[in-house]
């Protein structure tokens, strides 16, 4: 049960930041995960009156407000066209439409939850977070930062030439994922992200440069590179077991989903 002593609907982000410096204060997102815990909150900070629930598209980027519901991402035509439908695929298994109408992208990204489909998906793009105090930093850096009392304002997706594919494995359709995987070509960069390990999503560092120049490979070269990289990912991504799956099963899934997502990328048209 949540016990809230004081509730404040803030007038600006500066006010939210000031209130959030108290250890027992908390910024409210969609409340779909938070409400399941037990916590005493001295000041509940509501950002819903700040207009941070929109998706703005510019020539070079998408700017997504922290209070934007996941459902808005799921049905946004521009985002889904840009990601070849991967955004929609990453969200469609999350409980149900009613849930996705409440859950916010800011809550998903800020929480850095191990089970987060959203975090995995956004790590597969050139994504930045805009924080009130720290400014704009890459999501790849933010995901490993120690949690603090800053305020997440916007999620920014830079528009680079992109091929991206999202896949997940679940025991049942709307359950938490057993493993999530994104393969993407961001410009010339090949990136693979594995989530629900069950730790938070990580970018697989291709130290052996197996996928280097993937775009320019022949079909046979791509097939061999994908096979090698899938084995490499399985050997280098740390997994563990929980009630949904064993570490061994997750490691097997790392290889399988990495292979399948990169096969999809390899079969996409050359035009972005």
TrEMBL record:
Keyword Flavoprotein applies: yes
Superkingdom of the source species: Bacteria
The keyword Transcription belongs to this UniProt entry's keyword annotation: no
Signal peptide: none
Single GO term (MF): oxidoreductase activity
PROSITE patterns per record: FAD_PCMH
Gene3D superfamilies: 3.30.465.10, CO dehydrogenase flavoprotein, C-terminal domain (3.30.390.50)
Xref: InterPro entries: CO_DH_flav_C, CO_DH_flav_C_dom_sf, Diverse_Substr_Oxidored, FAD-bd_PCMH, FAD-bd_PCMH-like_sf, FAD-bd_PCMH_sub2, Mopterin_DH_FAD-bd
Pfam families documented for this protein: CO_deh_flav_C (PF03450), FAD_binding_5 (PF00941)
Keywords assigned: Flavoprotein, Oxidoreductase
Record protein name field: Molybdopterin dehydrogenase
